[in-house]
Specification:
The chain has 216 residues and is an alpha/beta fold. The protein has one domain. The protein has a 4-stranded mixed sheet. Strands 5, 6, 7 and 8 form a 4-stranded antiparallel sheet that branches. Strand 3 and strand 4 form a beta hairpin. Helix 5 runs parallel beside helix 7. The longest helix is centred in the middle third of the chain and has 23 residues. The radius of gyration is 18 Å and the shape is globular.
Length: 216
């Protein structure tokens, strides 16, 4: 049986209790269609070592393989899209490091199994870069990063444009949640009503997805 507690000290200081696999599976089954959409975005505000996020990626990648596995460049493109759709925050730095590594190893195992010695170092570098940007060491309650030089958490939105070029736009988590337009927006809006469109803190030029880790 898997342990859901790393230490009593962590439970006392941070309320850390890891979610078991059976609970993860049951909860994700409630949104099964979304977990099977390659580009569907997920944010886990207390991601721990990645129990939820790793299962989401494990569900997405087989769909990438079925649809695009016959073309390496297409598989790489959509596998990276799947990785880029996963976001997490955790207040414990070791959890963040483990979560990033765990997600990377899931991607790498699928990728290397399919393409073996044709797997590209540049593609793995892109995935590591995306995970560094998307899995944040911070506090989802204060909306700020942890450690020295604490500042508002910034998330990157990734979208493919012009074929294999990846567009990055950065948004502060604080602005996304605190915007008055978001607070007043009804749950269901009629077509034609104003819709809240957040303003990016920074935008980057579209870059080929195999080069993005080196350029940005």
């Amino acid at each position: 049986m898997e342990s859901q507690v790393i230490s009593k000290k962590r439970v006392a200081e941070h309320g850390e209790v890891l979610t078991g696999k059976s609970e993860v599976d049951a909860m994700l089954d409630l949104v099964k269609q979304e977990t099977e959409r390659i580009d569907s975005r997920f944010l886990e505000p207390a991601c721990g070592t990645g129990n939820f996020l790793s299962e989401i990626l494990e569900r997405k990648l087989p769909f990438v393989e079925v649809r695009y596995g016959k073309s390496q460049i297409e598989y790489e493109r959509y596998a990276i899209l799947a990785v880029s759709s996963i976001y997490g925050i955790d207040i414990l730095e070791d959890n963040v490091q483990q979560c990033r590594q765990r997600l990377f190893e899931i991607f790498e195992s699928h990728y290397s199994r399919i393409f073996k010695d044709k797997a590209k170092k540049e593609c793995c570098e892109t995935v590591r870069f995306l995970l560094k940007r998307n899995i944040i060491w911070g506090d989802a309650l204060t909306l700020k990063t942890a450690g020295e030089g604490s500042e508002y958490i910034v998330f990157s939105e990734w979208s493919f444009v012009s074929g294999n070029k990846l567009k990055r736009r950065d948004f502060t988590f604080h602005d996304l949640l605190d915007h008055e337009g978001m607070k007043e927006l009804p749950l269901f809006s009629d077509i034609g009503e104003d819709v809240f469109i957040p303003e990016a803190k920074k935008e980057y030029p579209p870059t080929h997805f195999l080069e993005i880790a080196r350029v940005q």
